[in-house]
Amino acid sequence: MKKERQESKLTARKDGQKGDLNMKQYKNQIIIGVDHGYGNIKTANHIFRAGVIKHDAEPPFTRNMLVYNGKHYTIGEGHKEFTPRKQKDDDYYVLTLAAIAMELRNINMTEANVYIAAGLPLTWTSGQKAEFSEYLTKNSEVTFIFQRIRYNIRISGAKIYPQGYAAVAEFASRLKGVNMVADIGNGTMNTLTIINGVPQQGRIFTEKFGTHQCMLAVREEFSKRTQREINGAIIEEALINGTANLSDDDLNIIKTIATEYVNGIFRRLREHGYDDKTITLYVTGGGGCLIKNFGKFNFERVFFIDDICAAAKGYEYIAELQLKSGASI
Hints:
The chain is α+β, with helices and mostly antiparallel strands. It is built from 8 helices and 15 strands.
């Protein structure tokens, strides 16, 4: 069967574009899901780079400037290094404020009671969720300026959910047989097995094998073979689309490394029990486009969740259900 090439963009929704504006609410609280990725921050309607540059004074360019606690931050520039503890500094807190502002801007609000729904890698959730929730709610009230608009926010709470599962939460209970979810982000790959709609607690795994590792491998191999440097934006274009405006020789270097990376994904999945003849695989996260472009797989048993904001929407979905049902949250 000839493999079909399908475009799957890491940045499916550009910053500023509006998506589904049916905000999740409970009583007087607006539920805002935030997917704190290492490469990108995603909400239900927005995506922007997980980069923060702190300034002691107003910087020359202020389009994406956030002012909080007397400091100026440029949002969406730079690169956030991988860390297993996202609460170790203020960066992800500041990024969360920007994410909240973007969602509120969609509904023309600058003051609101906000309930944050977020996530952590699967095997880190139980150990860090209390600390991460406390980090996100450290200020019950917060005033900040983003893109020259002042926001006054009351944070009424935060709930932390497992990454990966959130992307399939709306239909997970209806899954029959044995299913595996592979959430391949910029920093980590999370896998979860679901049997007849029930997540298997003993079969969840988190590995530092995200798409950033593929980017680094491409950059290193390209430099080794050509004695030239290649811009990260070109690498990303090639990984997302399967091609780029490059010579055949240069493009083949990227394709070779990307294929090796995808082979590594399936090798790790098999180590965790994946069998393409008996298990249905759901792939979510930015790494899905790499599998589409450079992988060989069983088309009948592999499904791609192409919405890059699926996890953030899933966090909101679960939080709304729990709040309305009165379940512990």
